Amino acid sequence: MIAQTDNRILWLPGESRMWDDEPSSRSNAGVRIDESNAHQVAAVFACLRVIAETVAGLPLHVLERTAGGGKRIARELPLYRQLHSQPNGWQTSFEWREQAVFHIGLPVR
């Protein structure tokens, strides 16, 4: 379960519902929530926003292996600048990663 608000229960895709044989069921409010319409629920967006902002705020570095078997930050590689600083002309690295996590977390059919 990912959220319970106003007697509406939202489930993760594929999560076992021991008492429910249907892929989705009506909540006490009479609203059917499943993978195809979860993107329309504000609570789902709020939870996903928290996850996306948290992941986007984590440090991101491009590493390469050294001759001695260690690793170092590869600041001179073009990929480093794209992922760490600015991936394109209109987004910061944080914005780009936040958007990517959001799209991964909520695929819309």
Low-confidence stretches: none
Q: Topology as H/E string? A: EEHEEHH
| Structure class | alpha+beta
Q: Number of helical runs?
A: 3
Share of residues in strands: 5-15%
Compute the CA-based radius of gyration.
20 Å
The number of domains: 1
Give the biggest beta sheet.
2 strands, antiparallel
User: Which whole number gives the mean pLDDT?
Assistant: 79
- Walk across the major sheet and give the strand order: 1-2
Helix % is 25-40%
Q: N-to-C terminal Cα separation, in Å?
A: 21 Å
Report the oligomer.
Answer: single chain
Shape descriptor reads elongated
* Beta-strand segment tally: 4
Q: What would you say this structure looks like, in words?
A:
The structure is a single chain. The strands form two sheets. Strands 1-2 form a two-stranded antiparallel ribbon. A two-stranded antiparallel sheet has the order 3-4. It has helices at 42-56, 78-85, 93-105, and strands at 3-5, 8-10, 63-65, 71-73. The chain has three helices and four strands, in the order ββαββαα. The protein has one domain. Helix 1 (42-56) packs across helix 3. A hairpin with a 2-residue loop joins strand 1 (3-5) and strand 2 (8-10). The chain has 109 residues and is α+β, with helices and mostly antiparallel strands.
